């Protein structure tokens, strides 16, 4: 019953900004880490950013200083603010979250369907 839905993708010029959102819905007791991955054409899926339940963050080197991951626990939503976008950021971005549905359940990984981000030069 848990679902993750991404939004905010689109076309933007190099140097521009975009903010992605991912909202979790369904039967959810708690959410641990939430993060973002991306997959560019012809490449493997790549880790982008993660934020823990305590607010600690980590980023892949290529986006450090440009991207910011944050979360709103009341809305069960994780965000990815992307600034100074480059053509090499073009990819499908996927939301990922580690969630348990109820107090007696175990944590499991969930994935969104992905949202396309295209950066033009």
Account of the protein in words:
It is a single chain. The chain is mainly beta and 121 residues long. It has strands spanning 3-7, 10-13, 18-25, 30-39, 46-51, 57-59, 67-72, 77-82, 91-100, 108-111, 115-120. The strands form 2 sheets. Strands 2, 4, 5, 6, 9, 10 and 11 form a 7-stranded mixed beta sheet that branches. The chain has a 4-stranded antiparallel beta sheet with strand order 1-3-8-7, with no helix packed on it. The radius of gyration is 14 Å and the shape is elongated. The N and C termini lie far apart (40 Å).
What is this entry, summarized?
The chain is mainly beta. 0% of the residues lie in helices and 56% in strands.
Rg over C-alpha atoms, rounded to the nearest angstrom? 14 Å
Helix share, percent = under 10%
Q: Which sequence of SSEs, written as H and E, runs from N to C?
A: EEEEEEEEEEE
From the spread of the alpha carbons, the general shape counts as elongated
Please tally the helical runs, counting DSSP H or I stretches of 4 or more residues.
0
Instruction: Average the pLDDT over all residues and give the rounded result.
Output: 97
Strand element count: 11
Low-confidence parts: none
Which structural category do the helix and sheet elements fall into?
A: mainly beta
What does the main sheet amount to? 7 strands, mixed
Beta percentage is: over 45%
């Amino acid at each position: 019953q848990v679902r993750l839905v991404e939004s905010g993708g689109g076309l933007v010029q190099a140097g521009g900004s975009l903010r992605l959102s991912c909202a979790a819905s369904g039967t959810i007791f708690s959410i641990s880490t939430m993060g973002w991955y991306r997959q560019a054409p012809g490449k493997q899926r790549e880790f982008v950013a993660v934020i823990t339940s305590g607010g600690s963050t980590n980023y892949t080197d290529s986006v450090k200083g440009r991207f910011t991951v944050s979360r709103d626990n009341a809305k069960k939503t994780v965000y990815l603010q992307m600034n100074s976008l480059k053509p090499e950021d073009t990819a499908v971005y996927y939301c990922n979250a580690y969630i348990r549905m109820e107090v007696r359940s175990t944590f499991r990984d969930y994935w969104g369907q992905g949202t396309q981000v295209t950066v033009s030069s």
